[in-house]
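Run log // design_07
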């Protein structure tokens, strides 16, 4: 059966945010109420489809007829700069199989569940030392910025150690990453940031080929089938995604717990609930608000709607994770023991599902458990209404989180 869509004005992207900082723009929820597949218009005026239903999003992300390759005709972009970044030298997450699978296999071993579980003691030390530094450097009656002083350094240290990137470079790559993820950055700004970060990583890969260590970049650098530039491209993707998303998510999770002291107390008293709570936080917050882009390589029906070859689609992870048919009528709220929470799509789905999802889960579990245990009196140092957010970024998160304890 072919679905006939109502003649509604297409949603213009990106939509403005509403009053609640914990929910995506209200227009996305409104679009989802119009059906699992709806029309939208990109900033350059070109049309695309929003896929909002949980089952429909999973279907698209698992279907090889929808391409993740940004060079595919019709692939949707929010800015010319993002188009340039994704098409000039695409990382493996912007490629289709078999090339995507070939490159992904080169780094999969470092993110397997067993390997990440072995990292738990090291991650715990990093978190404890970060809180020690925070507590020592900041008087208890003076505010600290939990984003700058804790949420960013912890995942940065972890991914730097795994990759073999000197941590003293973290200010450089954090600054460049922010530019690369900014939908309002110009083509020239993105090109400069990309050249700078790729050049830095290519130089590091060349040095590691001569003097390899026990890290991901070294193992890639000594391969005969990769150039230093290709090693840099793999490192670039892991570095940028490995710290920014976890940093944003951890700060948002802390704020969510500060807003819900009863839940924070429950998790403090019973840390065994934390793994389930992290899944629920990932589902509820879903910091990739505008979803994952794909382009149809041939005609496909999704949710009864015919999507033509060359049509761009955006899989709305945030809407899918609030699908009441899957997660219940209380889906927008937090339910730390929600039985279906782990079915969320915060890490995507299919062959391109986030490589670092196990690492992110472990980091969040350790970060939140340790913050609740060691900083039981943590509280906001400013009115919540004054907090600001990276609404312009691909990854949504707090710009700062002033706290005291």
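design_07 sequence
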């Amino acid at each position: 059966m072919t679905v006939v869509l109502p003649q509604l004005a297409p949603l213009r992207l990106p939509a403005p945010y509403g009053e609640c900082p914990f929910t995506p723009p209200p227009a996305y929820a409104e679009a989802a109420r119009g059906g699992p597949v709806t029309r939208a218009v990109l900033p350059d005026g070109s049309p695309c489809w929003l896929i909002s239903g949980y089952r429909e999003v999973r279907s698209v992300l698992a279907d090889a007829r929808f391409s993740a390759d940004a060079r595919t005709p019709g692939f949707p972009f929010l800015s010319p700069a993002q188009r340039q970044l994704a098409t000039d030298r695409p990382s493996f997450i912007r490629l289709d199989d078999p090339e995507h699978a070939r490159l992904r296999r080169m780094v999969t071993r470092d993110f397997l569940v067993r390997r990440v579980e072995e990292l738990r003691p090291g991650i715990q030390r990093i978190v404890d030392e970060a809180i020690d530094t925070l507590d020592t450097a900041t008087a208890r009656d003076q505010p600290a910025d939990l984003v700058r002083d804790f949420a960013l350094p912890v995942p940065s240290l972890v991914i730097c150690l795994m990759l073999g990137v000197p941590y003293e470079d973290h200010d450089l790559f954090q600054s460049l990453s922010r530019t690369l993820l900014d939908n309002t950055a110009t083509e020239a700004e993105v090109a400069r940031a990309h050249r700078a970060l790729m050049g830095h990583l290519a130089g590091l890969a060349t040095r590691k080929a001569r003097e390899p260590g026990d890290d991901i970049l070294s193992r890639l650098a000594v391969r005969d089938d990769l150039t230093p530039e290709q090693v840099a491209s793999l490192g670039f993707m892991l570095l940028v995604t490995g710290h920014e998303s976890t940093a944003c998510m951890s700060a948002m999770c802390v704020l969510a717990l500060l807003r819900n002291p009863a839940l924070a107390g429950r998790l403090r008293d019973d840390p065994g609930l934390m793994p389930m709570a992290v899944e629920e936080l990932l589902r509820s917050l879903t910091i990739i608000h505008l979803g994952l882009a794909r382009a149809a390589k041939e005609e496909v029906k999704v949710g009864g709607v015919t999507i033509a070859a060359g049509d761009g689609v955006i899989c709305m992870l945030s809407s899918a994770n609030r699908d009441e048919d899957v997660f219940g009528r209380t889906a927008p709220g937090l339910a730390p023991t929600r039985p279906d929470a782990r079915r969320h799509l915060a890490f995507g789905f299919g062959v391109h599902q986030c490589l670092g999802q196990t690492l992110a889960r472990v980091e969040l579990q350790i970060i939140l458990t340790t913050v609740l245990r060691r900083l039981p009196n943590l509280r906001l140092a400013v009115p919540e209404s004054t907090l600001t957010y990276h609404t312009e970024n691909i990854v949504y998160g707090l710009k700062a989180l002033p706290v005291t304890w």
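DSSP finds 17 helices and eleven strands in the chain.
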